[in-house]
Design a protein that fits this description.
Belongs to the DeoC/FbaB aldolase family. FbaB subfamily. It comes from Bernardetia litoralis (strain ATCC 23117 / DSM 6794 / NBRC 15988 / NCIMB 1366 / Fx l1 / Sio-4). One of its GO terms (molecular function) is fructose-bisphosphate aldolase activity. By secondary structure, the chain is α/β, with parallel strands linked by helices. Helices cover 41% and strands 14% of the residues. It has 16 helices and 12 strands. The strands form 3 sheets. It has an 8-stranded parallel β-barrel with strand order 1-2-3-6-7-10-11-12, surrounded by 7 helices. A two-stranded antiparallel ribbon has the order 4-5. Helix 10 packs parallel to helix 13, helix 13 crosses helix 14 and helix 14 packs parallel to helix 16. It starts with 8 loop residues before the first helix and ends in a 7-residue tail after the last helix.
Length: 357
């Protein structure tokens, strides 16, 4: 089935509001001709000649071939691991239905998502009923907030083999780049991704920066384009098939914090202050788009969630990204509103008038 966008370009422009100029941006620092852009044959073009075995290609085909965005080269994923990352109470109190993992899977299906990404426990309980109805992405590591005082460390919650047993097409993991535990996390996740590929599953990496010293002089550089892009580059190096990253909000972390290494051309020739350019630098660090970049939807802000989600989708698509992974904006509201929000995100990618800048 071929899906079409319900949101018109005019309606998308209305939702963008003051950011509507994003639709007209046409002078990117890195030209689109250098990119490997999402397309219906993306898996064939990028992975057919790689080291990924036929079972991984089949899993990637399922992932890219499901939901309203099926066979477009784009993905819309519902992630619900916040019950561990932020505590269940903080995550599900706005809509207690989602304490029940079946409602998470139902939202992903009814919302037209390519896949649902959530915890071992959630998907284990739902595996026999839903593994053949929507692609499962098992999140294999998490932070936990019961250690007092709180610490922030991603630890493994189960095995890659068990993710395979419950029918997952992919595993997902987070690395807190910049944290004192990041070296161990890189080693653990690299080994897990290697095993996942051996078993025929795809791999998705949440590439998050985390260090208190990434805030300086009142500026939070956790979402700086140069810093997050380097996290992406490490992620593709350990063979992530898709990179999840927060949308960049600033730049210049390496110069202003005075660490790591960079080059003046990163800021003068390869990026600008435009949000699309900042995101494109993230895409460039995903092997120029050979590995798809999906940006996260972020926390729920209430009434502005729809416009924020559409804006993020427009930036990601026009930058050369591969889609959006949005959770709290969708599940922290009534089911019909969550479906509407997910469909609106998907409509950006289905709209042929919104093109790569």
């Amino acid at each position: 089935m071929v899906h079409t966008a319900n949101l018109s370009t005019e309606r998308i422009s209305e939702l963008l509001g003051q950011e509507a100029e994003l639709l007209n941006f046409s002078t990117p620092a890195i030209s689109k001709e250098r990119l490997h852009v999402p397309s219906p044959d993306f898996v064939d073009k990028i992975f057919a000649n790689s080291n990924r075995n036929p079972q991984v290609l089949r899993s990637l085909g399922q992932l890219y071939g499901s939901g309203r965005l099926a066979n477009t080269g784009y993905v819309s994923i519902l992630p619900v691991d916040q019950g561990l990352e932020h505590t269940a109470g903080a995550s599900f109190a706005p809509n207690p239905d989602y304490f029940d993992p079946e409602n998470i899977v139902k939202l992903a299906i009814e919302g037209g998502c390519n896949a649902v990404a959530t915890t071992y426990g959630n998907l284990a309980l739902m595996s026999r009923k839903y593994a053949h109805k929507i692609p499962f992405i098992v999140k294999i590591n998490h932070n936990e907030l019961l250690t007092y005082p709180n610490k922030f460390d991603q630890v493994m919650f189960g095995s890659v083999e068990e993710a395979w047993n419950l029918g997952a097409v992919a595993v997902g993991a987070t690395i807190y780049f910049g944290s004192k535990e990041s070296t161990r996390q890189i080693q653990e996740v690299a080994a897990a991704f290697e095993r996942a590929h051996e078993l025929g599953m795809a791999t998705i990496l949440w590439c998050y920066a985390r260090n208190n010293d990434f805030k300086k002089d009142g500026v939070d550089y956790h979402t700086a384009a140069d810093l997050t892009a380097q996290a992406n580059h490490i992620g593709v190096t350990i063979q992530a098939d898709i990179i999840k990253q927060k949308l960049p909000e600033t730049n210049g972390a390496f110069n202003n914090i005075a660490f790591a290494k960079t080059h003046k051309k990163v800021y003068s020739e390869l990026s600008s202050d435009n949000p699309i350019d900042l995101c494109r630098y993230q895409v460039a660090n995903c092997y120029m788009g050979r590995i798809g970049l999906i940006n996260s939807g972020g926390a729920s802000s209430g009434a502005s969630d729809l416009s924020e989600a559409v804006t993020t989708a427009v930036v990601n698509k026009r930058a050369g990204g591969a889609g959006l992974i949005s959770g709290r904006k969708a599940f922290q509201r009534p089911l019909n509103e969550g479906i509407e929000l997910l469909n609106s995100i998907q409509d950006v990618y289905l709209n042929p008038e919104i093109t790569i800048a």
